[in-house]
Amino acid sequence: MDEEALLAMDQADYMNAEQLAFFDARLLELRQETLDEIEASKVDINYERVSDVSDRATLEEEAQLALRLADRKRQLIPKIDKARQRIRQGDYGYCIESGEPIGIARLLIRPTAEYSTDIKNINEKRERRYEDKR
Fold first, then answer.
1. 15-44 exposure pattern, b = at least 16 Cβ within 10 A, e = fewer
2. What is this structure's pTM?
């Protein structure tokens, strides 16, 4: 099944077995890609001995950036695992706060999404208000 066929399905078929299998496969693929990217970034971090101070500073800055990127990717793995668990439990595709459908289009963009667009927007506004008060 491709994305177009998924989007063309009737709303009454939301999160049927075929859709769940599609997203499970997509999440599994995303997990492997993420692990591969993390591993590749470890290899990319080059700790060569460089005598020039500016070259060493550049290498250290690049290594710091690579470490931050790898950490961000590492944080995605539990989210993927959690989404796959929701598939097995039958909760995948539904907002964990409101119970409303998240929507195929949103899940295609962010297969680890836990909130509907409306709830996500409300939560982000709440967070911004909290940040502004600090």
1. beeebbebbbebbeebbeebeeebeebeee
2. 0.81
